[in-house]
Design brief:
single chain; about 150 residues
Length: about 150
């Protein structure tokens, strides 16, 4: 029982430290090493101008709690144009509402998808352009980047 109490106390301490970090807008430093690395990689990608200056980043996770944590942390640190999609709901950084409809989020991220092109729009869409997607892989301690067409 003491081990569980100690674990609970330690988790509260970490939560308090991270909570204090987000009080100051734009704080890009974290005691969470993995979050700190993610922030650095996102900023590096956005600043690099690689991939035709495409600043989009996709983060995949198995757990909704992790996705929500990252969404909340990045949003509170000044990152904008964020979206979080899970099986139980979707959320964007420009709204506090959660919705089950994730199609608008997909359309924002990839506006030249088959679904987007098949919709009946009241305006003319530009011709489809070739785009490449940058993928960063942090699984298993590897960092790799490749362009997919």
């Amino acid at each position: 029982m003491d081990a569980l109490d100690n674990l609970f106390i330690n988790l509260q301490k970490v939560e308090n430290k991270i909570g204090k970090e987000t009080v100051r807008p734009g704080n890009l430093v974290s005691v969470d090493d993995k979050l700190q690395t993610l922030i650095a990689e996102i900023n590096k990608k956005r600043a690099s101008g690689e991939n035709n200056a495409n600043a989009k980043v996709v983060i995949f996770t198995v757990y909704r709690d992790t996705a929500q944590y990252l969404f909340d942390q990045l949003r509170s640190r000044g990152f904008d144009k964020l979206s979080m999609v899970s099986g139980s709901g979707s959320q964007t950084s420009d709204s506090d509402e959660e919705t089950k409809n994730f199609e608008p989020i997909l359309e924002r991220f990839a506006p030249y998808t088959k679904l987007y092109m098949e919709k009946e729009w009241d305006f003319q869409t530009p011709k489809k352009r070739n785009r490449s997607i940058s993928r960063m892989d942090f699984l298993g301690g590897r960092k790799s980047s490749e362009n997919l067409c």
